[in-house]
Amino acid sequence: MWENIKTFASEFFVTGDPLIYGADVAIVLTLVAIVFTLSYFKKWKWLWKDWITTVDHKKIGIMYILCSILMLFRGGVDALLMRTQLAMPDMQFLNAEHYNAIFTTHGVIMILFMAMPFMFGLFNIMVPLQIGARDVAFPFLNSLSFWLFFWGAMLFNMSFVIGGSPDAGWLAYPPLSGIDHSPGVGQNFYIWGIQISGIGSLMTGINFVVTILKMRAPGMKLMKMPMFTWSVLSSSLTIMLAFPILTVTLAMLFIDRFAGGHFFTLDGGGNPMMYINLIWMWGHPEVYIVVLPAFGVFSEIFATFSKKKLFGYTSMVLAMMSIAVFSFFTWAHHFFTMGSGANVNAFFAVTTMLIAIPTGVKIFNWLFTMYKGKITFETPMMWAISFIPVFVIGGMTGVMLSVAPADFQFHNSYFLVAHFHQVLIGGVVFGFFAGLYYWWPKMFGFRLNERIGKWAFWFWNIGFYVCFMPQYGLGLMGMTRRVNEYDWGQGWDMGWMPLNIVSTTGAFLMGIGFLFQVWQIAYSIKTHKRDVNGDPWNGRTLEWSTPSPAPVYNFATLPKIQEVDSWWEEKERIKAGKPTPQPPLEPIHMPDNSAIPFIQSLCWFVAGFGFVFGWMFFAIPGLIGVAVTMIVRSFQKDDGYYISVDEIKKTEASIRGAG
Amino acid sequence: MAHHAAAQTAHHHSHEEEHESLKTMGFWMFLITDVILFSVLFATFIILRGNFNGGPGPHELFQMPGVIAETFILLTSSFTCGLAVLSMNAGKIKGLIGWLAVTGILGIAFLTLEITEFVHMVNEGATISTSAFLTAFYTLVGTHGLHVTIGIVWMTGLIIQLKRNGLNVKTKRKVNNISLYWHFLDIIWIFVFSFVYLMGVM
Amino acid sequence: MKKSRLAKRIFAAVPLLLMTVLLSACSEKYIVLDPKGPIGQSQKDLIIITTLLCAVIIVPVLILAGFIVWRYRDKPGRKDDYKPKWSHDTRLEVTWWAIPIIIIAILATVTVRYTYALEPSRPIESAEKTVTIQVASLDWKWLFLYPEEGIATVNYIKFPDNVPVRFELTSDAPMNSFWIPQLGGQIYTMSGMAMTLHLQADQTGKYFGSSANFSGKDFAQMRFVAEASTKDEFDAWVKEVKATGNALTTDGYEQLQKPSVEEQQQFSSFPEGLFQKIVTKYVPEGSQGHHHGGGAVSSNEQKQKPVQPETSEDADSSHNAAQSTHAGH
């Protein structure tokens, strides 16, 4: 009996590596610390009522961003571990299996559990405020999306200490990810972690399309929407069209692994190349899904900090929408070397290059937004400006990669690694950081410390170039991605060491940048001065017309929109002594909080966990739980509640008056 | 006071209607994503449909009389579902519930036939792991079956809600959405019937 | 304002840094830019052309960006030239829709031509008789078969210089990618499929060969040596290997196919039709098999004949150019 338990435990828990034991201890200590703090300060009820069951888009957005920063930490530690292993030839720091697991989780976490939730966080916090709405179209669904993401991410991260991490690359190509070559549970964690959070992403996509199309304040025509809202619309539409492909693909991979299916197996007539096509039919649009909102953020920031209208609004909208459309026709450029023939390669090379056109137009428009403006260099603007060179160069190497015959030499080399990190860090991470700095005052009612923020900025930026520029060189030296060591004796001196050392140094500089950001946030929480007027940057769009943080109902009366940059124009009118008259207050209808999203997502987690290990006694109750919570929800009245005029008056007086 | 309450009620109604129209639009969006989901399943089926791996093919497996019966039943259920909506629009709640129940029962009949068909095939030794063709077949047809099952559960819940709460903005929207869903499944089935069964035995 | 000056300097440093990387490419460590064969040479030419075409637009944009950020920064007392409402200019916008369209049009034309010219399954035209080497990526080693010479090697190939080499590639393990950077670009090796890649070395030497696609635990150990030698040396080597009497048997292959890391090995013979057996391993007896895309085995015979390409003129010129500039290295 005892032996059985021991055998089970040694398979169930990942063992044998001091790093893992260290992580085990850290996880247990963190959990104890959280439980203790919550109990000590009697915060359990607060946590439950104010956060876990909330349907308020602003709070959900904050939770998304908090999780994504934690995931950035984990993905970042993964990156530093990898860079340490690669710093010198023949490093014995990580063994091959461990290294493979780490680059896999690094990729999955950074794209799906860092970039996506960060983006959803910004969607949530800003879209309703920018379009003058009181919440998203489906607040309940929004909460459900968040908790599905949360539990999906938990399930994925659990694989680190329980059962074993996936180690077949972030897109898990079969047959490597099939049951024959990956018999462990790691791939199951991969499938279910992504599947559960992916369903959440799909619902968020639907939610924001409906929100933006149907809930804009009176007078806000589509062509009067803030550019960030446009970017959210294009990104959400892309989610709607791309994520179902991911859902099906992962389900098929699971059927192969779990039920002995033959979609992607070598035997039985399966076709592994079909997986590669399908996963990139989602995977390529996915890249644009995360980068389009970053474009939106930059558009807002360039206009605000140049104190000038965004240049070429129509061009910008057209460019963004055409990028969203083109993104669906380029997927095969991820495998030019598959031997599909010259016709296929030529087609996908050209469609890929076409994306450079609208992207180039956007760069020009941003530059000319600053042209004849009055540029000030607060932290959001610093990130936005630094984005331009990073993205321009990353875009250029992207075009170089799209040249199919040249790609035969770049493919799967560090040239490619450098390229996609350049566009994803330079575009997405810089963009979301810029957005976080820009909207932080709106989220919390105070600004982040500028001085520490600039230290963080410089460490990140210099670190970025030091880390990734040498990798282009490494690619041209023939270094392929995903190698865990690189000097093999045998008389090869590939000369990869110097640039690798430089690159690792850069990675650690970015790590220091991240620490500065943590310090910046902690320091600002302690020493901040409250932002009184809700408009610290002299903003242009509607979100800056509300107090910071915005009250639960966002707008006491719904604004009437006459133009783009409506808040800027309104401020001009106020200055001229002709403010738009406010309609009288009316009671505001708000949705009720609900515990169902949390419970239902937890049931998904239990079901997913059961499927990972093939334990039907977990999986079936989990699925039943999902069904029951859905039915309960359908029978709920869910009428919401009204905030009375008196209460609105009181709230408005206290927020505006307190300042 | 009374005035205030009246205003609030009026406000309440307009708000609720607006809210229901949002949900209808959201449901359309969901259907779009579901179309893509089925498109991917159809595409994989078409790619894999010739890979029998030495196992049985459509000629040996498909029993067309049963499949045609399934098709007929599902088409009829789509019709009765339409009758349910007509009754609702005429304000006849009894007719509505009755036709919904008929639709649900036809759905159950469809599922029974489909499950019988699957069991028959498995007994012949044609399981999901026999060949790529069968993996794709079971996944595509099974996903449609799963959708029908969800539809039946939903319909049952809706009938209970209609009995309890009668017709209001909310239940009306739900009836409209489920009828959309049901017609959608019918269209998917027509594709399944032509691409999987007819093209298989032709 | 000190910060922004620093920022500008950094921005200026970026293209410089990139150029340094590219210019120092003459260094022999940048093997992709130091090709030793016509295919690699054409690919290098293409890389240079595309880099220059991109640079034509990128460099001015970066300079413009630096200038605008510098010129329009908010100094105390700056009042001039501030146009807060200026947000549209049709002429300007047409210009910057047009610039990328023109550049991309040129680039696309170049790319399409090269795509057909450098299609890996296209034979290299040469007076010399093509050498065929069959390649199978295994977990985690490369098996090479010489069907005409009847010998086999592991993690090592030798072939004569100035002779086209036709690689037929498959895999008996997860997908991998076969890459000899100095001879030319890579191609995937996949189970159940036979791919074709043509390469040629213009001078003798040992070239680095690697596995470019992740295929599991020890894929990083899957490198091989590709040695181009003179024709005489090659013939002598073949004789020598044949004389060792160390045959690769079917059992021996079964052993070799199991996951492991291997040193270089040479075999005097290998089982008849081994390559075809690997490719058709998953095709069940008596069924038609699944020829998914690409070049499945049965079509190999047809593919052996040189294809008359539509853009043969380009192909010739690029290959010839490759040979004439080759002396410079």
Automatic annotation (TrEMBL), chain A:
The subcellular localization recorded is: Cell membrane
Name the cofactor(s) required for activity, per the record.
Cu cation; ferriheme a
Per the record, membrane topology reads: Multi-pass membrane protein
Q: Which Pfam families match?
A: COX1
What is any one of the record's Gene Ontology cellular component terms?
plasma membrane
Swiss-Prot/TrEMBL GO biological process terms: aerobic respiration; electron transport coupled proton transport; respiratory electron transport chain
**Principal localization?**
membrane
InterPro entries linked: Cyt_c_oxase-like_su1_dom, Cyt_c_oxase-like_su1_sf, Cyt_C_Oxase_1
Q: Which keywords does UniProt give here?
A: Cell membrane, Copper, Electron transport, Heme, Hydrogen ion transport, Ion transport, Iron, Membrane, Metal-binding, Respiratory chain, Transmembrane, Transmembrane helix, Transport
Residue ranges of every copy of the Cytochrome oxidase subunit I profile domain listed in the record:
42-562
Pathway given for this chain reads: Energy metabolism; oxidative phosphorylation
- Which family does this protein fall into? Belongs to the heme-copper respiratory oxidase family.
In terms of PANTHER family, this protein maps to: CYTOCHROME BO(3) UBIQUINOL OXIDASE SUBUNIT 1, CYTOCHROME C OXIDASE SUBUNIT 1
Per its record, how is this protein called by name?
Quinol oxidase polypeptide I
Organism listed in the record: Paenibacillus roseus
UniProtKB/TrEMBL annotation, chain B:
- Give the matching SUPFAM superfamilies: Cytochrome c oxidase subunit III-like
Domain of life here? Bacteria
Identification of the protein by name = Cytochrome bo(3) ubiquinol oxidase subunit 3
Pfam families named among the record's database cross-references = COX3
Q: How does it sit in the membrane?
A: Multi-pass membrane protein
Function summary: Cytochrome bo(3) ubiquinol terminal oxidase is the component of the aerobic respiratory chain of E.coli that predominates when cells are grown at high aeration. Has proton pump activity across the membrane in addition to electron transfer, pumping 2 protons/electron.
Ordered alphabetically, the record's keywords are:
Cell membrane, Electron transport, Membrane, Oxidoreductase, Transmembrane, Transmembrane helix, Transport
**Which Gene3D superfamilies does the entry link to?**
Cytochrome c oxidase, subunit III, four-helix bundle
Residue ranges annotated for the Heme-copper oxidase subunit III family profile domain, each copy included: 1-201
Keyword Cell membrane appears in the UniProt entry: yes
- Identify the PANTHER family for this entry: CYTOCHROME BO(3) UBIQUINOL OXIDASE SUBUNIT 3, CYTOCHROME C OXIDASE SUBUNIT III
- Cellular component terms per the entry's GO annotation: plasma membrane
The similarity annotation says: Belongs to the cytochrome c oxidase subunit 3 family.
Compartmental location:
Cell membrane
Q: Give me the segments passing through the membrane.
A: 27-48, 68-89, 96-116, 136-160, 180-200
Extract one GO BP annotation from the record.
aerobic electron transport chain
Subunit note: Heterooctamer of two A chains, two B chains, two C chains and two D chains.
Q: Which GO terms describe its molecular function?
A: cytochrome bo3 ubiquinol oxidase activity; cytochrome-c oxidase activity
